[in-house]
Amino acid sequence: MGILKDIRQSSRLAILVAVAAATVGIIYGYDSSNIGGALDFISKDFGIASETEKGLLTSYVIFGEIAGALAGGALANRLGRQRVMVIVAAAFSLFSLASGLAWDVPSLAIARVLLGIAIGVSIVVVPMFVAESSPTKIRGALLVMYQVATVTGIIFGYLVAWALAPTGNWRLMLGAAAIPGVVITLLLLKVPDTPRWYMMRGRRTEAAAVLAQIDPFVDPHAELESMEQDLATAHATRRSPLAGVKEMLRKPYARATFFVVVLGFFVQITGINAIVYYSPQIIKAMGFADGDHMAIFGLPALVQVAGLIAVFVSMGLVDRMGRRPVLLTGIGIMIAAGALMVYTFGVGAAGQTDPTKISLSGGFVLLGFLGLVLFNVGFTFGFGALVWVYAGETFPSHLRGLGSSTMLTSDLVANYIIGVAFLPMLHVFGGGGTFAVLAGFAVLAFLFVLKFAPETKGRPLDDIRLYWENGGRWPAEDDATRTATDKAAG
């Protein structure tokens, strides 16, 4: 209940800004799942037979996402966070319609790549926008709200696929995404840009006005002074396009760059989008028939509902329990889920030599479904929620766009690898071998987070740079002050 109290005490503008930005996640989530529902019907219409070709069809959007993520930070700095998000939402509507109207594989590929560019830009800009527009004490929760919207979109995508599966109308499955895109575009038109972007453009009066409305409990002049000090260090970065890259690759930010690149890669290589994209195929691998639409599309939606509940729990804990404990708990659940899936397929499918015709029965079907639920719950509680928090918090203002682009590009490269490789792995190694690989990556991710992830709970956004400037540790005097403050608050 504490987080709800903190949110209620925040200004209406802060909540409007965060909700408007986070809802962009709905269209990202919808696109992630609707291709899973449409895949078999598209393959039938366009004569796509091999698993490799299906993986490529799913991954066309990821090509665009990588390009969009690379460009997202620069666009947000030049045009503004709010303006870029409006363009992204409108572009999503346009290219969703184009996907639904595609007449062959090349035209669908082009539409999906362009759609991916819009999505790639959005996943960079939204965390920046929310982090820069949120009161400190609820910043983590409002960043997690993006994952709430994303999972909601995933559920919506599966439900639409379920409703349309009897007709096989994949065009409507893909094109329907234009509707939330239009609604979100209109909503985003009503919000201002962030105080930090206004300061980057020398518009101090507008920055002060928005900051006072967003967080009436802070001293806007002190906050603006802190922003100015941070932006003053960016003078060289603004003179040269490569200066920001060079700054990220040397002390004190080389450690931060290493952290976001590896964390972003682990977020996806552990396999969550294999679950999102290919849940219908995984469900069929458990022994359900092709025509059982209720199981093939309904069960993945149910898996995501469990994930949505986990995101809400994470949102309530991230600003109280801390970033690291939440993230480590989520990865631990993923490891346990991977072990359960290895057991389920390893024992339940023992003696079945053809991995393309695996059929589980009885209790093993239930265990397999439980494994999918736990895997998704662990991801959405940990990685799914915290990736947006760390993307928005890790770097100072002048490097935030480039840093977010770097982290989420690494994330999308791993996403592409999983998108292309998962179905062939499933058919070559079976469910047991495939989930053993994913669980192995989750173990490595747990060890990495344990060693390198900073705890940014309660830290003012512009003070997080002190962690990197102090060699990956918080300054001792800052820790002592915070300990005394926490005791007094307790």
Describe this structure in words.
With 490 residues, this protein is mainly α. It has a single domain, classed as MFS general substrate transporter like domains (Growth Hormone, Chain: A, Up-down Bundle), CATH 1.20.1250. The protein contains 23 helices and no strands. Helix 3 crosses helix 16. The radius of gyration is 22 Å and the shape is globular. The C terminus is likely disordered.
Rg (CA only): 22 Å
Please work out how many helical segments DSSP would assign. 23
Helix content: over 70%
Per the CATH scheme, the topology name is Growth Hormone, Chain: A
Short recap of the structure:
With 490 residues, the chain is mainly alpha-helical. Helices cover 80% and strands 0% of the residues.
Topology:
Blueprint: H1 2-9, H2 12-22, H3 24-46, H4 51-79, H5 81-100, H6 105-133, H7 139-164, H8 170-175, H9 178-188, H10 195-200, H11 204-214, H12 220-232, H13 235-239, H14 243-248, H15 254-269, H16 272-285, H17 293-317, H18 323-348, H19 363-381, H20 383-393, H21 397-452, H22 465-469, H23 476-489
